[in-house]
Amino acid sequence: MFPRPIAAASPKGISYQAFLPVALLIWLIPLLAIFLTSIRPGADINSGNVFGIPSDFVFIENYTAVFTQSEAAMYLWNSVKITVPSVLISVSLACLAGYALAIYKFRVALPLFFLFVAGNFIPFQILMVPVRDMSVQSGLYDTIAGQYLFHAAFQTGFCTLFMRNFIKALPFDLVESARVEGVAEWRIFWFVVLPLVRPAIAALAVLIFTFVWNDFFWANVLTQGEGAKPITAGVRALNGQFVNNWHLVSAASLLAAVPPVLMFFLMQRHFIAGLTLGAVK
Amino acid sequence: MAVIDAPSITTPPQAGWLKRNKLSIAPWIFLAPALAFFTLYVVMPIFESLYLSLFEWNGLYDADGNSTAVYIGLENYAKLWDDPNFRTSLVNNLLWLFLFFLAVPLGLLIALFLNQEMPGMRIYKSLFFFPFVISQVVVGLIFGWFYNPDFGVVGTIWKALFCEETVNFVGNVTFKCSSPPPDILSSPEFATYGIIAAGLWPQIAYCMILYLTGLNNVAADQIEAARLDGAKGWKMLWYVVLPQLRPATFIAVVVTVIGALRSFDMIAIMTQGGPFGSTNVLAYYMYEVAISEYGERYGYGSAVAVVLFAIMLVFISYFLWRMYQDEKGTR
Predict the structure, then answer these.
(1) What's the pLDDT at B3?
(2) Which residues have CB under 8 Å from B143's CB, separation 6+?
(3) Is the CB of A153 less than 8 angstroms away from the CB of B42?
(4) Segments forming the whole domain that contains residue B177
(5) What is the pLDDT of residue A46?
(6) Are residues B161 and B238 in the same domain?
(7) Shortest CA distance from B117: residue in chain A
(8) Based on the structure, what is the number of domains in chain B?
(9) Across the interface, do B265 and A48 touch by the CB < 8 Å criterion?
(10) Which CATH superfamily is domain A70-275 in?
(11) Is the ipTM of this complex over 0.85?
């Protein structure tokens, strides 16, 4: 291991362990500050008590106020309705495409693979005008479906990159021997390969969930009214609505962050495997 | 050849064209849905944007459903050349790129600090990673408030250090300051740095996790061998550890470049390009130009997008070239 391991019981180890929480505290100061703000009464902020102990703990009151005084519940539900189909579609399509690009040897396999990879890196702005125009023309503008269809298509690039590399690393003999026994191609995919890529599916699901949930750009480009906005765009709208009510804005922001954070803590191993693009094993 | 084509023992007579060619047809069937979808929403729009950048268009259609776009050749690009906002955006983009790279060494530094085995270490590592999981909108809001001179953290600390608190007879608090607390996001000189600092926070966390995973897989025997040879500290890091971390570094660089050039959310939340357009970057300026309150300028916006795309393309080509080298190596 590098750096050299410090023994937990040694003097160095004890000071290391004492310093860790301090370092973490400094690292997370912005987050702690906003959490404290979200549970203090609004009067505290006006009287200058921003960083101290709240004069009163109003956790429940503030968070209920977010739901009763704004459309936060609708925004959150919209986010779910956008995120879940995006994940399902992009991961399914990528399983199929990744299988094709990893298992079959045909001349354009590599160029097609690179097409998916490159598409994943391009700036959103180059897609903005045509995608928006297309959505307006087809009646998908300002709808939930308009957003998840785009996200699903875009994320298919990343998912295919990941899936193809994952399947490529599987032992090819499995496919070969199934072929020799005369198993149909789609049955090889379904019964041989798909059960083996479950970890990749899990990694992609959590990762795409987080990416799509946290999207803000397309929420602005593809929606107009409040009805189809996800929580990220909603939080911005709340920011305008709750001017100078920082305790409520903070509570709403933290609420928006809860689902991806939960996802991360529940599926940590898969999440990290996904982030490293499967290249760092 | 005729011998092989004739019905023989190996191919039963009923095997049709489909069956004989199944290995060359099957991949296309598996690929078709993803490819069609991806082409419709990603590949074609790129070319449409390139094409649209040669037009002047407000996004409207006439009664017959024909676009009202007017072909103006390269005029949009000529206008960009003289557009001060475009220049600011370009300069800021370079600043973002340059400063964002700090995330790579800083992420490595934190990863080295955290790469120990102690009770509860896993939880510490995940908590350090926390900022990346949160939406950039939320990070932007947090920092917007953090920087607020009146009631943010920066303002509060400043007041504690440089201001005298006086309470008047009604009980209202006023402050007398030797110099007023800095309003970072309203100052044309510092606002961009403020936003980049906020953007670095999650990006460092991302690089950290990449390096932590990489450090996990550094070959222990090589480290031990180098230790026996007397290598330690910086020398060990530079000559033994870093070369083994190359895959992690590569991905860290890729995601950092992309993160820097994609910066949009934070700017939209924290300053909306202001004050006086000083925090604009291409990604935000494009959006502002294309869909603004003053009418939509799809053509001009597309031209800005094409420039951003061209910059990104340089990096994308490099990444793809690197991946291609790796692919050749594995075959």
Answers:
(1) 45
(2) A30, B194, B195, B197, B198, B201, B266, B270
(3) yes
(4) 148-182
(5) 67
(6) no
(7) A5
(8) 3
(9) no
(10) MetI-like (1.10.3720.10)
(11) yes
